[in-house]
Amino acid sequence: MNQNLEQIVMGKGLNRHGFDMTIVEQNRTPFYYYDLDVLRTTLDEIQHQAAGHRFKVHYAVKANGNPLILKEVVNHGLGADLVSGGELKAAIEAGFMPQQMNFSGVGKTDWEILLGLEHGIGCFNVESIQELEVINQLAGECGKKADIAIRVNPDIDAHTHKYITTGTADNKFGINIEVLEHVITQARNLPSINLRGLHFHIGSQITLMQPYVMLCETINALMDHYEQRGIRFEIINVGGGLGINYIDSEHHLIPDFKQYFDTFKQRLNLRPEQELHFELGRAIVGQCGSLITRVTFVKESRNKKFVILDAGMTDLIRPALYEARHEIQNLTSIDIQTDTYDIVGPVCESSDVFARDCQLPVTRRGDIIAIRSAGAYGESMASTYNMRALPGSVFHSRK
Length: 399
Fold this sequence. Notes:
Blueprint: E1 8-10, H1 21-26, E2 31-35, H2 36-50, E3 55-60, H3 67-75, E4 79-82, H4 85-94, E5 101-103, H5 110-119, E6 123-126, H6 129-141, E7 146-153, E8 175-176, H7 180-189, E9 193-199, H8 210-227, E10 235-237, H9 257-267, E11 275-280, H10 282-285, E12 289-300, E13 305-309, H11 318-322, E14 328-330, E15 338-344, E16 353-361, E17 368-371, E18 392-397
Parallel strand pairs: 1-18, 2-18, 3-4, 3-11, 4-5, 5-6, 6-7, 7-8, 7-9, 9-10, 10-11, 13-15
Antiparallel strand pairs: 2-12, 12-13, 12-17, 14-17, 15-16
Helix pairs in contact: 2-9, 5-6
């Protein structure tokens, strides 16, 4: 069986870790294995928990822009959160409605802004005064009015890795609260700008609700403050960032969306006319994907045993970039006895390490390894460094 981006394999028997081994063994490694049933169950749960409220859920395309992933998300009625013109094009091609698109990002170029204006997207999330002025100019030149939300930096620490924290005063994202009133005034006075709301995003891989509680308190105070000045916002966008369980993925395939949405239902004083927007990425696709790779060598040094894989940081950069941990499983070893290994790739970088001191069944050359919870920021961040080929992808479904 050849790797094929558009291939959906209707599998039958699964092994104890939930993989169809016929699919795994017939595809050249490394490749991404996506379980469409997990993705669909996740999307169904989001729809269930968000139903009956003025909630609009957008999928953060940066998490995974694979065309088949996007089509599944479209089929469940979600909008799209975009951070580039390329993502906007992919979203249009996948069938997302432009009115359900939010365009975020701190460095939108003129052509990307013009592309959003051309398609009539629902909202630009504006991150600076200069960006606001440029969007106003470009919209005016096109004879259009741009719908925007102002991204606010609430100075809230989400207690995640420093590279994925986005809501503190030291981050490049958003507009600081102390200058927010000036920016709002300017936005309301610009002729080609329609100020629809406020946007927030405090970080990624957030597993505790307290940062979201703090965010709700900040938003409540801001809404009260501006209502006293006769300013109401049609949209409040709280971003995304909900984390997943990377350590025990098999028993936590679906994030706790009930707790997440309940936090905002109970803590945010949403006005009757307001919509609440969410921009979830990792929580939607993280658990449906695994990187499948094969053991090239098992190498012993003085103090270590190394399992050297044919996948590397070019295929999944999160451990090297964020010091991220992923559950790693040997899918083919039948040994009861275990050993301790560093799991590494072939790339000529010392940071090309997936895990250190990892307990696995005794592992040998040719064994097939699964790196779990890799559906988000895996394939989308893959590169051709060392002139390596990009990983393929296979989709599995039992339905």
